[in-house]
Design a protein that fits this description.
7-stranded mixed sheet, alpha/beta, 14 strands
């Protein structure tokens, strides 16, 4: 499996892109503005999108993807998410007011878009690739994802604050190689982090004390304007794990 980071910022501006990862050539994990890194041909090759939650920075490009590429495809784009996330997309995005309902275009029998509900703990297997929804603790119903090639695994936390249930799952993954975990705010904004249910450096340090596996750790979702400050605070708060900042176009093979 090969995971390419298309976007990993908590905002936009300049070269910043919000969360999206390309798994091999045909699967997206979240679909924020990082999808803009792809060519139209690459977009047309994506068959599956796994969505952690309904916030705009994680779903913004789904409407444009399906609108731009549906005529180039002979099968629908499948969106995998928990039911609450799919309901939000149906009601608030693909509702004919914000965007056309592509689950009925060009017709209901051959739509450009289809929804597939996944449950927490459920594993979807795509050509040997195992993608499992794992616990997240966010302001809206949310999950993270465990990607397992059989040889090695990567865990992406999605957006989350303190989350004991996540570590119960992660600590059981024997072939874990990479952990991508969010830290959206600096400690200067800890009250905002708690209110919006995100991590900050001091909260991340407490979470990593629960982590029992050996893996490379990468920090994602840093807010623009606070990147350097937040990473300095992470380095000061966490001495043994040495988390690194996730970068656009960073590739993980496992």
């Amino acid at each position: 499996m090969k995971l390419r980071t298309l976007g990993c910022s908590g905002g936009i501006g300049g070269n910043l892109r919000t969360t999206a990862f390309l798994l091999d050539h045909d699967v997206l994990i979240d679909a924020g503005t990082g999808v803009n890194e792809l060519s139209l041909t690459e977009v047309s090759m994506i068959d599956h999108v796994f969505v952690t939650h309904s916030h705009l920075d994680h779903v913004a490009c789904i409407p444009f993807m399906v609108d731009s590429a549906w005529a180039m495809r002979d099968r629908p784009l499948t969106i995998y998410a928990i039911e609450e996330t799919l309901d939000a997309l149906r009601q608030h995005v693909f509702n004919w007011e914000i965007w056309p309902d592509f689950s009925k275009i060009p017709n209901a029998r051959q739509p450009a878009l289809r929804y597939q509900t996944i449950e927490l703990g459920e594993t979807v297997i795509l050509e040997g690739r195992r993608i499992t929804a794992i616990p997240a603790n966010h302001a809206v119903p949310a999950v993270g994802f465990h990607l397992d090639s059989g040889k090695a695994s990567l865990v992406y936390s999605g957006d989350t604050i303190s989350n004991d249930a996540l570590w119960e799952v992660v600590n059981k993954i024997e072939n874990l190689r990479y952990l991508i975990i969010e830290t959206a705010f600096s400690d200067n904004e800890i009250e905002l982090a708690i209110l919006s249910r995100h991590l900050c450096p001091s909260l991340l340090a407490e979470e990593l004390k629960k982590f029992r596996r050996e893996a490379e750790i990468f920090v994602t979702h840093l807010k623009p304007g606070e990147v350097e400050l937040t990473m300095r605070q992470i380095e000061s708060a966490i001495h043994d794990r040495h988390p690194r900042m996730l970068l656009n176009n960073q590739v993980f093979e496992f």
